[in-house]
Every structure is written in C-alpha cells, then in structure tokens.
Amino acid sequence: MFDKLRSEIRNEPIVLAHHPLCGRFEDHFITIRGRKVCRGCLTVYPTAAAGIAILAPIGISDFSVLFALSLFLFIMNLPRLIIHRSGRTNLFFNIVLGLCLSATALAMFNCPADLRLAYYPFVVVTYLLFMAYRGHRMMSGCRKCPDHHLYPACFTALVTTDCEQYD
Q1: Which of 19, 44, 69, 110 is the most exposed place for a label (fewest CB within 10 A)?
Q2: CB within 8 A of 97, min separation 6: which ones?
Q3: What pTM does this model have?
Q4: SS3 category, 162
C-alpha cells in the first residue's frame, strides 16, 4: 500500500498544487524537485504552524479572544477576493490566512463544550463557502479558455494556449 502511494506521489506532477498547469496559473506555483507546489499553501500552512507555536506557549487560550482574533484575521483576508493582487499582496494575504487558520484551530481546541455545536459547523461552513468561491473564480477563468474542452486534462498536462489572455 505504501509503495503504491509513493508511486502515485512520484508520478503526479501536481501532488502539492491545486491549480491547472496552463499559463493562466503559472504564478500560483513553484517547482521543487520536479513537483509543482502551490505558493499559497507553501505560505499558509507553515504560517499557521508558526502561529500555533507562538500563541500556544504564550498562554493565549481564551476562546473568546481566539475567536475574535480569527474573525478579525478572516475579515482582513476578504479583500483578496475582490482586488487585483500582486506577488506581495498575495504573500501578505497568505500570511494573514495562515494566522487566521492558527487562531481558528486554537479556538476549536479551547471551545467551551456548550458552544461546540454552533462553533464547529460555523467554521466548516465558512471554510467551504470561502473555498467554493475561490474555486468558482478559478473555474470562471478556465471556462473562458479556448482549451476548456480539454478540462480536466489541463490539471495534469500543459495545454498550448496561454489562458491568461482570457481572464
């Protein structure tokens, strides 16, 4: 079973990325040892781990403080959905998103029992709505591409058209 998993990872060009490999998304990933890695994920998840590593030891464990912090950071991250971003603004928003993730995770761990039934679904629904909107925006760009008929092959192979012009 582990050999099959290792083989799948070794042969999958985008195992750590979730964007098509066409020209439209070229700036969304970097290549590390032959594998496409999402730049955002490479920023968000280590930032989240660092946030937990900083917040937990300094004793910030009050649910209401962590919830307020996560809500504030999430609201700070929302402009990414409507503004044109550069590499620097993407980096900023990814760091904010990572810190939001760490505050949310710590709030989940410190959530009072009587609030869990409301808080956990709130977190899941918010996450799903955020990701659905981002996925919708990505697919809107893909639908404008003349090579859209190849979808989902563009996730695993370079297509000839530079879709950036169709965004």
Answers
A1: 110
A2: 40, 44, 47, 73, 77
A3: 0.73
A4: coil
